[in-house]
Amino acid sequence: MAGVNGAVDEALNRDYDSLLKHARWYNAPQAIDIPIGEEGEEVEIPLQDLEEPTELCQLLETEKAERKHWITVALSYAKANKLDYALEVLQQAQNIFARGLPKDRLPVLGCISWIYLLKSRRAPRVVSEAQDPDTKTKEHYLREATNVMNEAMRINPAHPPLYLTRGVVNLLRAALATSTKTGQAAENERADAINQALKCFDEAVRLSDERNLLALMGRARSLYLLRKYSQALNTYQEVLRKQPKMKDPDPRIGIGACMWQMGYHDHAKTAWERARQLNPNSNIAHTLLGIYTLRESEKYGTDDRRFETLYSQAMADYLKKAYSLDKQSSLTSAAFSTYFLNTKRWDQLEALAKKAIEQTDINATASDGWFVRARKEHELGNTQQANDAYGRADQARGGQNAGFFPAKFGLIQLTIESGDITSAKFRLEKLFERHKALEIMTLLGCIYAEDIFAAQKANPKEDKSAEYRKAIRMLETVRKNWKDDKAKIKTKPDSAVLLYLARLYEMEAPLESEKCLAEVESLQRQAITDEQHFDPNAEDFNELIQEHMPPQLHNNVGCFLYRDEAYEQALQRFEIALNATLKLHEKQIEEKQKAEDAGENTADLDVTDTDALVTTISYNLARTQEALGQRQHAIQTYEGLLSRRHPDYTDAAARLAYLALIESPQDAGPKKLKAMFDADHGHPEVRALMGWYFHSSKKKTANIAEDQEFRHYKHTLQQYDKHDVYSLIGMGNIHLAIARDMPRNTEPEKEKRTKMYQKAYEFFDKALQLDPRNAFAAQGIAVALCDDKKNFSEALQILVKVKDTIRDISVFQNLGHVYCELKQYSRSIDSYETALQKQIQQRQKRHDSLQPSVNGDAGETTNGLNGHAKADHKEDAQILACLSRVWLLKGKNDKSILSHTTALDLMQRALATAPDSPHLRFNVAFIQFQIVLLVNSLSDAERTLDDLVTAKTGLEEAIATFEEVATVPNPPYPKAMLEQRAAMSKGTMMKQVDRAMQQQSDYERANTEKLAEAKRRREEELRARDAAAQRRKEEEEAREAEVRRKREEYQEEAARKAEEFRQAALIREAAEYTTDEETGDRVKRQKKKKGEGRSKKRKARDDEDGFIEHDEDSDSQAGHTGGRERTPISGTDDDKEQDKQPKKKRKLERKARPVKEKPSRKPKEKEGKFKSQAVVVDSDDSEEEAAETPQGSGSEAVNDAPTPKTGGEDGDVDMQEDDAQSGAKTRPAPRQRKQLRTIADDDEDEEGEDVPVVPSSVPKSTSRVVEDDDDE
C-alpha cells in the first residue's frame, strides 16, 4: 500500500488542486451580457459549450468590454477545463489593458498566474519516454507563473492578492526542489521556499485583518511542511471556527493530517470521515480513509476475517469511489494500485503506477508508484527492471540512510535470489540497525541459520556460536510476535521459521526442537483441514490428516521419538510417513498427467524426490524395528531396500551383516561380513563394522602390535581416510585398555603407562577436532583423566555433558566410578542403578528378539537361542559388584549396618551370576568380615543382639570362604594372607563377638526394664494430665452455666423495669389527658390558673414588651436547663435571699440557627430558638420546696415526672438560672443520653397547651421534680 505519511502530504496538496471542480467556479455565470453601441444595448453570450475564443475576443475588443467581462469569459473557459483558451483570453485582455492604467492590469495578471499554477499542478513532474518530448512539465508552468507574478509586482508590490500567489508559488517550488533533486542542497532549498511561503501567507493574513481564509490555509500548510504540526493544527482549527461550512478546500483534511503526524490516528480518521460526510464527492477524504483502513487491516493476518472485512471496505467503499471521482489523482492511483498488485492484473497496475509517478509533486507518492511497479517486475521475474524500480522507489524517499524500507528490503531479496548471500547479509545487518522489523529478523535469522548448516558440513571446527545466538534470538522474536496480543503488527505463524528453529535446536536443545515440530504439525493440520474441508468429527479424520501431511515432518518427528527411546511411537510415525510418501508420489503422477494433457508447463509442479524419501524412511523404519526386537521385520525391510530400490545401499547391507553377526556370531555372521567387506572394503561404514567385529571377537593381549583391531584401524587411517573419526576413537580405546592393565610397580613402568595414556588422549583429541560434538571421544578423554591424572572433577564435567548425548550403559558406569572417587556416594549409587536397569532392559529386548526361530539348522539355532535366553536373564556381575562397593564405602562413612547389609546383598546377587568366581566369593566374605568389625565398634545403643547374631553367622561363613578360596589355583590374594585372615577370624574376632553378645544381652535386659518403668511413669503422667483436663473442663462448663443464669436474671430484671416504666408512662398519660365531653377525643387537662387578675396583667405586660414572668412551671423547667440540674441547698441563707429578691424578667429572642453545645461544669448560656438570660423565681412560688428523685444508674433510676418535649419544630429552648443574681449553689446532674428541654410559650398559662407524653425510648436520668400546687 502507499506510504501513509506521504499520502497525507499528497492529500494536502490535492486539496488545493481541485480548482477544476465546479464548486470552485460558482461565480462563473452560464451567460454574460455585453454592452454594444452607444445606445446601451446589450448582447447575451452563453458561456456553456464554448469553442475557440477568437471571435469572442474580437467582440470584447470591438465593444471595449470592461475588464470584468474578460475575466468572466476566461473563468468560464477554465470551468470547462479549457485552460489554454482561458489563458489566450487573459493574454489578449492584458494586451488591451496595457494601454490603460497599470492598476487595471493587476487582476488580469493575477488570473494569468493562477491559470499557470493550475496547469503546473496538472502537468507531469517528469516526461517519460512514451510521452511527447515537447510536453511541458510542472517546472515550466511554475516558471511562467513566476514571471507573470514578477510583472505584477513591478506594478504594485503591495497588492494583497499577490502575497497569496507568491505563497502558493513558493510551496510548489518547495515540492519540486526535492522531487527533482536529492541531497542536502535540495533539502535546504525546500526549507527556504517553505519559509518564504510562510512569510507571504502571514502578510496576506495581516493585510486582510485575519479574514483571508485561503491565506490561513496556506499558513497552516507551510507550518505542516515545516513539521510544526501543533501550530498547523491550531491554524486549521482557527479556519474551521471562522468558517464552519468551509469544505473547498476543507480544513478538516489538514486537521486529520496533523492528528496523524502527531500519532492520533483515530482522531485523524474522525476528521476525514466528517469531511466525507460534508462533501460526499471529496476524492481526498475517500482516499485518506481508504489508506487508514488499509493500515488497520495490516494488524491482522490475511486469513483473519477482520482483515478481509477491512480490506474490502478500503478498496470497495473508499479507494474505488475515490478513483471514480478523480481518475487523475496520483495519490488515489498509488493507493488503488496495490489491489491490482494482489490480484496480479498487471496492465491496470502499470497505468496507475504511471499516474502516481508522473502526476505527483510529492516524492512519497512517486516512491509508492515505483514500488508497486518494482513488485510487478519482481513477480514476473524481470530482475533488472525490478532492481531499477526498487532503487528509484528508495531514492525518491532519500535513499541511503533514509530511503524507503520496503524498497530496500526488495533489493535485498533480489540480492539473495542472485546468490550473493554475503552482500545480502551485510545490507540486512545495516538495515536492521535502523528498522527492527519482523521481516528483517525473519530473513536475517534464516541466513544465519543457513550459514551454520553450511559450516557444519564443510568445516565442523569453525566457531559459529555468535551466528547461532543471533539466529535463535531473531527467529524466537518473530515466534513470540505470533502469540503477542499487544503487538502493533501481528503476523501469522510461519512453518519455515519453526523448521529453522527446530534444526538449530536439534543438537543444543532437542526438547525445544520437538516443540517446534509440534507447532508445525498443528499448523499443517489446520491448513489441511481448511483446504480439504475435512470433517473433524469423522472417524477417519486423523488418518486423512496424517496422509496429507508432508512425509518429511513425520520422518523428523519419528527420529526425535527414536532418540527418546519411544520406539513404538517412532515406528508408527515412520509407517505413516511411508504411506504419505506413496500418496504424494501418486499425486505427482496424476498432476503431471493432467498438466501434459492440458499442454501446461510442468515446471511449477511439485518435484519432491519421493524415491529418496522412501529410501530414508524405510531405513529409519528398519532401525526402529531393530530397537523393538523385531529383527525379522527389519531384515525384510533392509532386503526390500536392496532388492527393489538400491542394491548398492551400503548402510542397509551393513545392518544386515550386523544382524547376522548377532544371530550367528560363529558361522553365518562372519561369513556374510567378510563377503560384504571383500565387495566394498573401502566404504567407511563397512570398515567401521569390521573394526567392531574385531573388537568383540579378539583375545585380550598386552602386545599392541599383535592386536588385530589395532592393525585394522591403523590400516584404515593410513590407506583410506586419515580423518576417520571411528578409527581414531577405536585406536584411543585400545590404548586405554592396554594402559589400564600395564604394571606400575616401578618408575619406568609408571612412565611407560603414562605414555600409553598420552597416546590414547591424542587419538581422542584428534577425533574431537574433527567432530567437536563427538561424545564417545569426550568420554575417552574423561576416562584417561580419571585413570592417569586422577582429575575426577574435570572428568565429571565431561561425563555429565556426555550423558545427555550418549544413553549408553558405559556412560553411567563411568559416572558411578567418578562419583564414588569424589565420595558422592548417593549419586554414584543412582548412576550404577541406572546402568543396571538399562542393562536389564537391553538383555530383555535381545531375548525377546531371539524367541522366534530363524531359517537354517533348526536344532543348532534353537540351542543357541536357549543359551542366549538364559544369559539374558542374568544381572551384570560387574555393575552389581561396583554397586556393592559403593554401599560398603557409604556404610563405613556413615557407620551404618543397613548399608553394609545392602552391600552384602548386592554382592551375593553378583555371586549368583557366577557362583564359581573366587573373586566374588572373596568379596562376599570380606563384606561379612567388615560387618563384624562395624558391629563390634558400635556402642550398645547403636546395635542390637540380632545384629550381633547375624554378624557371627556371617563371620562363620566368611571363615569357611577364606579357607576355600585359599585352596583355588589362582586366588585373588596370596594363600598365606587368606589363611591368616581365617585364623584371626576364628580366634580373636569370634571371641570379640561372643563378648559383645553377652554385653549386648545384659544391656538390652537392663534397658528393657528401664523402658518398662519409664512407660509406666509416662502412662501415670498421662492419666493425671487427662484427669486435670477433665476437671478444668467441668469447671469451665459450670462457670458458663452461671454466666448464662445471671444473664437470664438480668434480662428478666430489665424486662420488669421496662414494664414498670411503661405502666408509669400510662399513669402519667391518664393524669395529663382526659376525654372531651363534647367531641369524645382525648385532650390535655386544663391547668388551674393562680390569680387570674394577675395573669391577665402579666399577659398584657407580655404583649407590650415581650417579657414573661416566672410562673408555676418555672421550677420544673429550671430543673432541665442546659442539660445539668442545679439544686440549691435547702435550709441555707441563699434560699432566704432568693425569696427576698424581686421578680426577674426574661426576654425571648428568636435566633436564625440553633446551636447546640456540650454541657460543662460551669453554667454557660446555650443558644437555641430563643435567648434567655435568667429564670425568675416568682415570689408566690418561693414557699414551694423542691423534691429530689432518687439517683441511680441504668434502669434503676426512673423519673417520676419526666420533662415534656416541646411541640415546636425549630429546636429546643434552654432555661438556665443566673448564678450571679440567684446565688444558688448547684451541683452537676448526671449526663443524659439526650437532653429534653422545655420552651416557654407566651400563651401557656391562658391556653393550657398539651403536655406531651414522654416516649419509652427516652433515657432515664436523675432530675428534680417540682410539683405545681394547681396540679396537685
UniProtKB/TrEMBL annotation:
Gene Ontology MF term list: RNA polymerase II complex binding
Composition bias, Low complexity: 1251-1264
Region (Disordered): 841-870, 997-1272
Alphabetized SUPFAM superfamilies for the sequence: TPR-like
A Pfam family this chain is assigned to: TPR_7
Sorted UniProt keywords: Repeat, TPR repeat
Acidic residues composition-biased segments: 1103-1115, 1178-1187, 1209-1220, 1241-1250
Full protein name: Protein required for normal CLN1 and CLN2 G1 cyclin expression
Native species: Lithohypha guttulata
